[in-house]
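FORM 12-B: Structure-to-Sequence Request
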């Protein structure tokens, strides 16, 4: 199937297709604008990795890994990064709430 068919049928973004082509070039030294059924799991994985927040380098590292352990480590690292961001936002929200409390109390 071609790019337009793939995007319409599976809602694959241009970013994911670009990542797929870059990965293909680095691993197989080919770029093919025709997509096969066997490409779908890879495209779906790239989509999920993008949603998680992986960049192109991390995506390639994940796809090139043949070891489940290494893939789990990459996912755990990204999870830890995301939790750190969440905790920082929680601290900011706590500070906002404290300032609002001070304003309502008349201290500010």
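FORM 12-B RESPONSE
SEQUENCE OUT:
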């Amino acid at each position: 199937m071609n790019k337009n068919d793939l995007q319409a049928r599976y809602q694959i973004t241009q970013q994911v297709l670009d990542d797929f082509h870059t990965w293909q070039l680095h691993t197989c030294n080919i770029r093919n604008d025709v997509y096969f059924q066997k490409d779908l799991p890879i495209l779906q994985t790239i989509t999920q990795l993008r949603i998680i927040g992986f960049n192109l380098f991390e995506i390639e590292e994940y796809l090139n890994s043949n070891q489940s352990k290494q893939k789990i480590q990459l996912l755990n690292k990204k999870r830890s990064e995301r939790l750190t961001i969440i905790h920082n936002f929680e601290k900011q929200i706590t500070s906002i709430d404290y300032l609002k409390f001070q304003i309502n109390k008349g201290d500010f």
